Amino acid sequence: MKQTISQIVNKTKINYEVEGLAISAPGLVNDELGTIGGISAIPYIHTCDFKEELQKITKLRVAMENDANCAALAEFWKGAAKDSNDAVFFVIGTGIGGAIILNGQLVKGKNLFGGEFGYTFLNERGTLSELGSSVKTVERYNKLTGKPISGEEFFGYSTDNLLAVHLSQNFYQAVARGIYNLLVSLDPGRIIIGGGVSNNQKIISEIKRHVEMLILDRGIKDMKYEIIPCEYKNSANLIGAVYNFLNV
Description:
Blueprint: H1 2-15, E1 20-25, E2 28-30, E3 35-37, H2 50-58, E4 61-66, H3 67-78, E5 87-92, E6 96-102, E7 105-106, E8 121-123, E9 126-127, H4 128-131, H5 134-145, H6 151-155, H7 162-186, E10 190-194, H8 201-217, E11 226-229, H9 236-247
Helix pairs in contact: 3-9, 5-7, 7-8
């Protein structure tokens, strides 16, 4: 890893003036201490003073932030939240992640768990990450049918497929409850949907419909909000890492 990073930096320096490294990483990223806590699919980043190691290798300034927080910063800087000081970034994928921006600032929390919506329990059946994951919903369908399909195929099924309808409704209800809880606890006014589902207008529309039904059912007549897809898609965390580098 060290050799690869060094080679990339040296190669880039041939044609560009490099000011530093802007890092977007999974886990509980503590830029001040230079460490990354928690658990992720990249175990080696949690075992050392990651920031110090990068600075030693590259001799450059390093700024790092959690990947979901970076994605939210990108949308706040130039994307779907550029005209708002308050927004929640809600990422739907293998689990549920996200970030909170209030009064133009990231809300990280004392233990850096700000935005870890997936840990919240919806009911006795499980957490928001377990019940509101698009990936896990498709995996349940594949396990029950024994016929592996993609997420695009699953969410494109017609109402004739009763199992797909049942599982997708469970998914929408879980996501809607998660968003509803954020709306009534944080009152951000804007929810920005990230992850692969943000490219699917049908899914966004269904999420909106289910949230609206909850709001109406609870009689919250004065709640003003909007739910919109992110603009930068898979590039959001990279753009946000640059914003973070420029502003720390």
